[in-house]
Design goal:
heterodimer; A: 169 residues; mainly alpha; globular; B: 398 residues; Oxidized Rhodanese, domain 1; 5-stranded parallel beta sheet; two-stranded antiparallel sheet; 17 helices
Chain lengths: 169, 398
Amino acid sequence: MKPNPNKFWNPYLAGVALGLVLLSGFLIMGSGLGASGASLRFGVAGLDLVARAHVARTPPLARAMESEHISWLVFEILGVLLGGFVAAYTSGRLGREILKGPRIGTTARVALALSGGLLMGVAAKMARGCTSGQALSGGALLSVGSWAFMFSVFGGGYALAWFLRRQWL
Amino acid sequence: MTLPILPTHQLGLVLAVLIGFAFGFVLERAGFGRAPKLAAQFYGTDMTVFKVMFSAIVTAMLGLVLASTMGLADFKAVADSAASATFLVPMVAGGFLLGAGFIISGYCPGTSFVATASGKLDGLYTVLGVIVGQVVWAELEWRPGFASFHNAGNFGNYYLWDLFHLPARTGPVVMALAVTAMAVACFFGAEKLEKVLARRASPVAMATPARRPGRLIFAGFAAVPLVALAGLAIPSGSRAQARGAATIAQVDLARRLFDEPWKVRVLDLRSFEVCSGKRIPGAECVPADKLSTLGLAEASSSLDLVLVGEGDLSELPAPASAYPGRVFALQGGWKGWEAFALTPPAPLAAGASAAEIELYQLRAGIRSAMTGMKTAPPPPPPAAAPGAPRKGGAGCSG
């Protein structure tokens, strides 16, 4: 049977599955899921190649190189890449393309993807985590900061959605 | 408490790949590798992001509550280790910024990895942007002018049950129940909204329909907190007995007093006169009959309680066993401590093993540190309010 690329899991079932993955993180590792910590490590590792002394004397960068939790996140993200690849391949969604709305050009889309990413990188470092580490994992653990963060994320998204409608609709 | 398992570092890295694999697989199958589907969340046409995220939060939360009720894990202990401390100001600011970046790029940091893995180049550019942004803020966050903002609104480990002034034992269950109820109500709202906006939706951003399985899951979400509540209803006396009088060895207490004195609260149960004369550094003199005045049952569970009797404690006094955190009795009580920490260790014979030598050095060090304090400090105010020092800046890097 040929997979249908427009068929996704029922969102509630997918949510329960994701919750069980998160729960296994809690019960096995004593930590949640994450993503932006791994991004930081990739960036710092790159910086370490060209400016080792600078990394060593900048405490947040030096910490990122030594943190055991961050190395755990790097391996977790390797798993995410593998899992995402296998899921995309088996669902017929694997393919080199740029996803965008019908009314925007490729260059503009790439510029927006890059600058949105930049903004999120800053934001996730500021907030001690992104939607995975802070909102999802911290939210499930009932942390006040995580819930404040989560509501702010939705607030920020809805606040700007109207201005960016040409990119998506 | 047998969970979390906390495997060795190497095994942990293997498990990281497996857990990550499942994480990435589920995200992709939910449709989170596609920016238009994610962005549709913010136009109301496809609430998949919201549904998946809150189902996941509720599932993991209820699972952990259930594990805690069965005595397999401790909700607060897991939360303390896995969640970052609350820094309200940068977290709210970062939230708005991240939300803005989300609608601009179409991904969040985690889903951009999934998009990259499935060949989406816009995902790859988002990943690169996130990497640069992370390094940029890491460069800035500790510098003067930025640090005060980056660390503003530090509440330490701060949970919703603290916010609503619920006790640490029942708080997680009650809050989990409330969050579940809220989530289920929002799910119904999301379904309604999608129906209303369905005509405007473009084919790429159509909501994934949820019918019967959705209802089954709602029912499941309702059932779990009820089970957890029933578990809590077991009389607290039997729970306290089941916990028994765990003991802590003198050497372990000494280590903790040196390494992390802010995490232990030592209560000396001997009579006030004896205790005022000589006691373990940092210990509060609380004679056994005064223990009930401390309000331990309502105290925050963030500190480990260590009880010191004259000798071994045969059983935990009732007020102490009501304490929501961990309670230990010191092995051998004061007499044991005196023999261990205040008298010189017996000299070692030649050919002692490395372990014996290490213990000897440790004991000698402890003794000199402990007896260096020649006169005992003045007696502390009896029944001091339990001030729980907060752990700061435990950077979660999600």
